[in-house]
Write a structure and sequence with these properties.
The protein has about 270 residues and is of the alpha+beta class. Helices cover about 25% and strands about 30% of the residues. It has one domain. The chain has five helices and 14 strands. A hairpin with a 6-residue loop joins strand 5 and strand 6. This is DUF317 domain-containing protein.
């Protein structure tokens, strides 16, 4: 286990021990606020009841996100209403899905779609995941074989995405996306799943797995707060920019100038 220390501390705070974890897919669930605070800063409505599961709704009320740890198997449910381009869709993500990977999908819900056609496999192949056909299904597995993405097609033609991660002890999670799930959302999820960047967990929240690598880091509470606030500030800035663009409408024609008294003069 390697030891790192962050620089630039002030004299009045005590550092706390955290751990950087790779691969991120086996890091455990993490702090749900990583997802919920970003959505709230992006203008989503928090419909949660005090002490109950998380329930959030998009500004246009077309998408709902819930996180319920109090039922079995528990986890995330994301539901989208049918619109002109897509049918009704949903995604179900296990309770131990790392919040950083969940945020790949939920953050994408707050942004305009790219004009480019989505490609779920591209971010996986960039990180050297092994892709192949398995019968009628198409499969990608991570280089260490702990995570996978599978495109399944049933005999009636219905397609589904199935993904997850598992270590040799059987710890992990699974997630699935129904056929109408917009592909740019699945791609955003696969991008975060394949990312080689470690994620951070506090002491006592590190999974007991022989297939993770950890680095001990000392972090001040103010540093954690600053990192979290930077993410929230970015969400607020993006929301403000989108709302400003919508409210600004260019004039198609200029109104003629009328002098006081209502009489126009010619020269």
């Amino acid at each position: 286990m390697k030891k790192k220390q962050w620089q630039g501390w002030g004299p009045d705070e005590q550092a706390e021990q955290h751990y950087l974890i790779q691969p991120r897919a086996l890091a455990g669930g993490g702090d749900v606020r990583h997802v919920s605070e970003f959505l709230r800063a992006s203008g989503w409505r928090d419909k949660s009841k005090t002490g109950g599961p998380l329930h959030m709704e998009s500004p246009d009320r077309t998408v709902r996100i819930a996180y319920d740890p109090y039922v079995l198997p528990g986890g995330w449910t994301i539901h989208g209403r049918a619109d002109g381009a897509n049918g009704e869709w949903s995604a179900h993500l296990g309770q131990q899905t790392p919040v950083e990977i969940v945020a790949g999908l939920t953050d994408a819900l707050t942004r305009p779609r790219s004009a480019h056609a989505p490609n779920v496999w591209a971010p996986l192949q960039e990180q050297r995941w092994h892709t192949r056909f398995e019968g009628q299904d198409y499969m990608a597995t991570s280089p260490d074989c702990t995570a996978w993405v599978q495109y399944r097609q049933s005999p009636d033609g219905a397609a589904m995405w199935w993904t997850g991660a598992q270590d040799k002890q059987g710890n992990g999670w699974t997630a699935n996306f129904t056929p109408n799930t917009p592909m740019h959302l699945v791609q955003a999820f696969s991008t975060e799943l394949a990312s080689p960047d470690p994620v951070m967990r506090p002491r006592g929240r590190v999974p007991m797995s022989t297939q993770i690598r950890t680095w001990s880091v000392s972090v001040k509470p103010s540093q954690l707060s600053a990192w979290q606030q930077a993410r929230i500030t970015a969400a607020r800035a993006a929301t403000w920019a989108r709302n400003s663009a919508r409210s600004t409408r260019p004039r198609t024609s200029a109104r003629p100038y009328t002098p006081a008294g209502g009489t126009r003069t010619r020269r």
